[in-house]
Amino acid sequence: AKADGRGTYRFFETGMDARAQARRLLEMDLRAAVQRDEFQAYYQPIRDVASGRVVAFEALLRWNHPQRGLIAPISFIPLAEETGLIVQLGEFVLRSACTDATSWPDDIDVAVNLSPVQFKSPNLIASVTSALAASGLSANRLELEITESVLLQNSEATLTTLHELRAMGVRISLDDFGTGYSSLSYLRSFPFDKIKIDRSFVSELATREDSMAIIRAVTGLGRSLGIVTTAEGVENDAQLELLRREGCTQAQGYLFSKPRPASDVAMMLERPRLR
Ligand code: C2E
Ligand code: CA
Ligand code: CA
Ligand code: CA
């Protein structure tokens, strides 16, 4: 590239074009994928730490791309959120999760992630109501996972929606706890049913004293407030043992199983460890 300002500018512009074009292609691909039914809900078991029993499955979205294979959400959820397509995808996951859960033992719940963008859509309550009605799943078997960023935006309307969902019998979990700016204050803004301790704290449990202290504080907080605590990203027995010692209620992670398709749920229930 030329050293003068103009050359640099044009080079930069070309770079922007390439990126914008890649984004447009992905967006077109994403829209077509919604039409072509290329999305699938995968499920990861969540176990009660004390009994070892599976108490729930978390639904995690996957894109089965005809050329690129299985695509993880990190590669398409941000764009789906920017373009609003997450609303349709979110409805798809909700319907799949509720329908799939009706064939599981009825003491096993299903957890679904909600994007902050879904809270900006006026249809959220209606789509939860219709997913429950269409599947026949009882509302108390559905957990909705939200992150702190949901509470940052338009919080009055968001709180009203959360209270309405709660009134329907649906439970609300605070996901990725500890990664935001003021996690503790969010616990005061809404009576969450569950706190999900972010994976970053669990992965450093054995190596960092401060992670251990944070886990201890959060599980203690859960106990005092009567809120279930779930540790995410549990990958080994040492982590599970420390969590058990701290009285963490539930654990989820590769130690038990990676997320798998609905057809593997029976297998995940039979075998406590499945890599
Ligand atoms: P999340 O809600 O925090 O989900 C947990 C993520 O951690 C999942 O990644 C899961 O596969 C991964 N994970 C679970 N156990 C372990 C472990 O032991 N070790 C490691 N290294 N990772 C583990 P995944 O499926 O790639 O999803 C990433 C994120 O994408 C989710 O984070 C969630 O924020 C978002 N997402 C996934 N599905 C949906 C969806 O249906 N709707 C919305 N709005 N977001 C979704
Ligand atoms: Ca989650
Ligand atoms: Ca999480
Ligand atoms: Ca996350």
Automatic annotation (TrEMBL):
Domain (EAL) ranges: 23-273
MF annotations from Gene Ontology: cyclic-guanylate-specific phosphodiesterase activity
Any one GO BP annotation for this protein: cellular response to nitric oxide
Keywords from the UniProt entry: Membrane, Transmembrane, Transmembrane helix
GO cellular component: membrane
Protein known as: Diguanylate cyclase (GGDEF)-like protein
Part of the intact protein present: 522 to 796 of 799
